[in-house]
Amino acid sequence: MRKLTMMFLLLIPGIAAFSQAGDKEAVKQVLNNYKKAIEKLDTAGVVNLFVKDSKVFEQAKDEGTIGHYLEHHLGPELKDFKSFTFSDYKVDVTIVGEYAFSTETYIYTIILAKDSKEIKSQGVATSILKKTKQGWKIFQTHSSFRKAK
Fold it and tell me: How many folded domains does the chain comprise?
């Protein structure tokens, strides 16, 4: 019995590390799905990536829940774009219990629909995700940007 207990205790860290690696990948997938929706200029289903009472901040402004942000800011804005692409994308995720903390850095390039003008910016987003019964969901996100160098 003691050998069995010792084997179990030795396996626990490995099982926990495997579980955390799976959680990190799941969090990255949620963030990637949000990024892909923006690149498609289509916000259908994006609300499902967020908890109901989420908070969205952009450039130090409280944009409200994801529903409000999509209806009053991002949705109308995407209609003015011919394309939106991310490059030099990097993401770092830390899991602490039922929460995940992420930092994304990237360059994004927008081509305007009306005159094909190119806008290139360097951006960063920090997000908190919560593990729910439906999987990982964005609880809060803040993004900011500046003209790319």
Answer: 1
Handedness of CA 61, 62, 65, 71 (dihedral sign): negative
Give the list of residues 6+ apart from residue 83 with CB closer than 8 angstroms, or none: 41, 109, 110, 111
> Which among 128, 125, 127, 126 has a CA at the least distance from the CA of 145?
125
Tell me the C-alpha distance between 99 and 118, whole Å: 37
Q: How far apart are CA 52 and CA 24, in angstroms?
A: 22
Q: Residues 28-63: pLDDT tens digits?
A: 999 999 999 999 999 999 999 999 999 999 999 999
Q: How confident is the model at residue 15 (pLDDT cuts 50, 70, 90)?
A: very low
Q: How far apart are CA 135 and CA 149, in angstroms?
A: 37
pTM as predicted: 0.86
Please give the residue range of the domain that contains residue 65.
2-147
